[in-house]
Design a protein that fits this description.
- The protein is α/β, with parallel strands linked by helices.
- The protein is built from eleven helices and 13 strands.
- It folds into two domains: 115 residues, 3-Layer(aba) Sandwich (Rossmann fold), CATH 3.40.50.10170; 125 residues, Hypothetical Protein Tm841, Chain: A,domain 3 (2-Layer Sandwich), CATH 3.30.1180.10.
- A six-stranded mixed sheet has the order 10-9-8-13-11-12, sandwiched between helices.
- The longest helix is centred in the middle third of the chain and has 16 residues.
- The radius of gyration is 19 Å and the shape is globular.
- This is DegV family protein.
C-alpha cells in the first residue's frame, strides 16, 4: 500500500526536507488589501517581514480553497492507495475541515485527515515522521496510529517579543499592549484545547528564553531520544546560536531550525521565538 503525505504551508518544513521525503504542501495565504500571496510560493518569510514594516494595516490570512485539496488528492490517487493530510490546529483555522470535506469528495483514493492541534514545525514533525513511515511501507492506518501516539509527548511554547501584532490583530487590547511594552512583558504562549492561549508572562526576553529552556529541560534531561525545533520570526542568527547551545547540552536530541512564516508571523510578529519537541 503506497501512502502519500500532505500538509499545509504553516508546517514551515524546510524545502530540502519536503523534497527529500516527498511531502506535498497546500498553501495558506496572506492578503494585503486586494493582493493575495500564497505563503511558501508567492512570498517568503523574509519578504513578508519586509512588507509588513511598510504597511499600517496587518494583513488578513485565509485557508486554501477546498478545490485545491480535491485537485491534489485526485492527482495523488493516480499512484497512491491512500493520502494522509496533516494540518494546523482546527481551533485556529478551517484548513483541517477543508481537507476533511475534500477527502469526502474524491473517489480514487482513501483520504485520512489528521488535526495536529498545533502549528509550525511541530506540526511539520507529524508530516516528517509520517513520510518516513510511508517510505518504510507502513500502512496508512499504522501511520495514523503513530501520529496519535506522538500527540502524547508533543509540546511547543512561543515567546512573543513585540506585542504590537497581537494588539493590532485584536488578540490583545491596546491598553494591555501598551502596559506590556512598558514593563517589557514577553508572554509565553502555547496550544491548549486546539487554541493558542497564554502560558506565562515573563519580564524581559532573556528571562523568557531561560524559561523556555527550563520547560524543555524537564523532558530532555531524561536522555530519551527526541526531536526538537527552534522556530524564529526573522531571527536566524539567534536561532542558530540557541540551537548550538542546546545541542551541546542534549546529545539525545535531534535539533532542527524552522521559522514563523507569513500566516503565523502575522499574529506573533517579528522577533518571536518558539521551541517545540516530542519523544522519538
Amino acid at each position: 500500500m503506497k501512502t502519500a503525505i500532505v500538509t499545509d504551508s504553516t508546517a514551515y518544513i524546510p524545502n530540502e526536507l519536503r523534497e527529500k521525503y516527498n511531502i506535498h504542501m497546500i498553501p495558506l495565504s496572506v492578503n494585503f488589501g486586494v493582493e493575495s500571496y500564497r505563503e511558501e510560493i508567492d512570498i517568503t518569510a523574509d519578504q513578508f517581514f519586509e512588507e509588513i514594516k511598510a504597511k499600517s494595516e496587518l494583513p488578513t490570512t485565509s485557508q486554501p480553497p477546498v478545490g485545491e485539496f480535491v485537485e491534489l488528492f485526485e492527482k495523488l490517487g493516480h499512484d497512491h492507495d491512500a493520502v494522509i493530510s496533516i494540518h494546523l490546529s482546527s481551533g485556529i483555522s478551517g484548513t483541517y475541515q477543508g481537507a476533511v470535506s475534500a477527502g469526502e469528495m474524491v473517489e480514487n483514493v482513501k483520504v485520512f485527515t489528521f488535526d495536529s492541534e498545533i502549528s509550525c514545525m511541530v506540526q511539520g514533525f507529524y508530516a516528517l515522521e509520517g513520510a518516513e513511515l510511508a517510505q518504510e511501507g507502513k500502512t496508512a492506518e499504522e501511520i495514523m496510529a503513530r501520529l496519535e501516539e506522538m500527540k502524547t509527548t508533543m509540546k511547543a511554547y512561543f515567546m512573543v517579543d513585540d506585542l504590537t501584532n497581537l494588539q493590532r490583530g485584536g488578540r490583545l487590547s491596546g491598553a494591555q499592549a501598551f502596559v506590556g511594552s512598558l514593563l517589557q512583558v514577553k508572554p509565553i504562549l502555547h496550544f491548549q484545547d486546539k487554541v493558542i492561549v497564554p502560558f506565562e508572562k515573563i519580564r524581559t526576553r532573556k528571562k523568557a528564553l531561560k524559561r523556555l529552556f527550563e520547560l524543555f529541560d524537564e523532558v530532555a534531561s531524561s536522555n530519551e531520544p527526541m526531536r526538537a525545533v527552534l522556530i524564529h520570526a526573522n531571527r536566524p542568527e539567534e536561532a542558530e546560536e540557541l540551537k548550538t547551545e542546546l545541542a551541546q547540552k542534549y546529545p539525545n536530541v535531534e535539533f532542527l531550525i524552522s521559522y514563523f512564516g507569513p500566516v503565523i508571523g502575522t499574529h506573533l510578529g517579528e522577533g518571536a521565538i518558539g521551541l517545540g519537541w516530542y519523544k522519538r
